[in-house]
Each structure stands twice: as structure tokens, then as C-alpha cells.
Amino acid sequence: MHPAISKNGVAVITGGAVGIGYAIAHRLAQEGMQLVLLDRDAVALTAATERLQAAFPTQTLRAVVGDVTEHATVEKLYQEAIALGEVSLLVNNAAIIKGAGPWEGAAQWRQVMDINFWAILTLQQRFMPTLIAQASSSAIVNLGSKEGITTPPGNAAYNVSKAAVRVLTEQLAHELRERVQNRVTAHLLIPGWTFTPMNFPGVATDAPQPAGTWSADQVVDRMIEGLSAGDFYIFCQDNEVTRDMDQRRMQWSADDLIHNRPALSRWHPDWREKFAEFMKGV
Hints:
The structure is a single chain. With about 280 residues, the chain is an alpha/beta fold. About 50% of the residues lie in helices and about 15% in strands. Helix 1 packs across helix 7 (about 215-230), helix 3 runs parallel beside helix 4 and helix 4 (about 105-135) packs parallel to helix 6.
């Protein structure tokens, strides 16, 4: 187990009311951690905290309602966390998926980047000096996406936001390694197709899980496994995509630059068949 996942350690989770965020909170409560959850949906957050408190009556739990893009909310989250003790784990999970095209939806671009990228940077800037100053081990987990690596067409704003998170977290991991070795670590959690309210809006949480998806609990299991192994890139599959398929898709995407192919050649009419042949090697 990663030393940041420790009994009575303080875990801070944004977007903690539902989906992957809630599943992370539940698992960390099982490990005996104190929780500080942030979500802008007050009703969902109240329901989540009530379920957690009922399941783990002796655990300390704090809930902060607010928008992760607002300075006052970030400051309240920080103060609630440090009041409980040394912060062991920060999970930047809050995100939205609705994006916009390359020259459309300026307002939507700003909202996606504010929530998916700038809020993560702001939280890092607020928490990292504290984590570095602490004597105990800690970790930060940022939620990335495969769309931030292979950048498929159709949702440019979301892809750009997640590509930015990947680069930011890579830079963070390097700087932490140079400054404090392994006492504070950074990790990029990369879910596959997961049965969550973000991916299936309006679907009841007790609805049957679509066959091709992973559950949020499976993603959390992989996160714990990856943290324990010291992985930076914590890749998750689903029930339709294997790790080998993911790796070959990423290899093809990287080779676009190396071989000077057309942008997003995987979806280019002149290269689709070549990509299909390439994937037969899986």
C-alpha cells in the first residue's frame, strides 16, 4: 500500500459526491482515512456523506459544497483539511465532459478549462507547499483521460483540458522527485469507459451496468494497485478495451509525429485501413 493511504490520514477528494470520486471516498474510508469531500451538488453531497457516515460511523468526514473554480471554495477546502491533521492524499477528480469544437463555443471552452485544468492547478498551488513541508508521506492523484493522450476528434475542449492535466502532472511528478524524492508523489489516473453519472447522465445509480464498462469501484481498485506499485500512469481498461489495445492506440498516436502523418491519422480516410491492420497485432 502506498504510505499516503494511511489510517487517520486526511484525504481530500473533489467531485466526491458521485461516480469515481465517491468510490474513492468509500474505499479510503475502509482504509480508516479521514475524508474531506468537495462537490457543487449539495443534494448529492449530503446523500453521499450520509451513506458514508452510516457505513463508517467512527470516521471523521467533512463536506464542502461549492464550485472548484472559486477561490473561496478552494480556501475553505484547504482549511477544513488541515484542521484535521496532515494531508495524506489529494485527489483532483472534479471534471465535466461537455466540450466544444476547435473554433466554436468560447464560453464552453472557458468552463471546461476552468474546471478540468485551472482548478487542478489552483488546488496544487494551495496544497503542495503544505505537503512538501510535512514530515509524512503524501500523494496527489489527478484524473486524466485517454482522450488527453490519443485526442480523438469530436470534443476538442475536453481533449485539450485533459492533455493539459497530463502535462501538468508529469511536470509535477518530476519536480517532486527532484525536491523531495519519494516522500511526496504525483500520479495520473486514466480511467477507461466507466459507468458514472458523467458518462451516463440521468441514469439511476442502481440501473444495470452497461456490459462494456468498468464500475467506479474497479477504477479505484486499479488506482490503489497503481499507487502501491509506484506507477505514475495508472491506466484502467474497461470490458471492451484491453491494455494491449490501449498501448497500440497510443503508439499509433505518437507515431503521427515521428512519421509526419496527417493529424489524427487514425481517423483520416487515407490511413484508416493502415490503422486497422496495425491493430490486428493485438
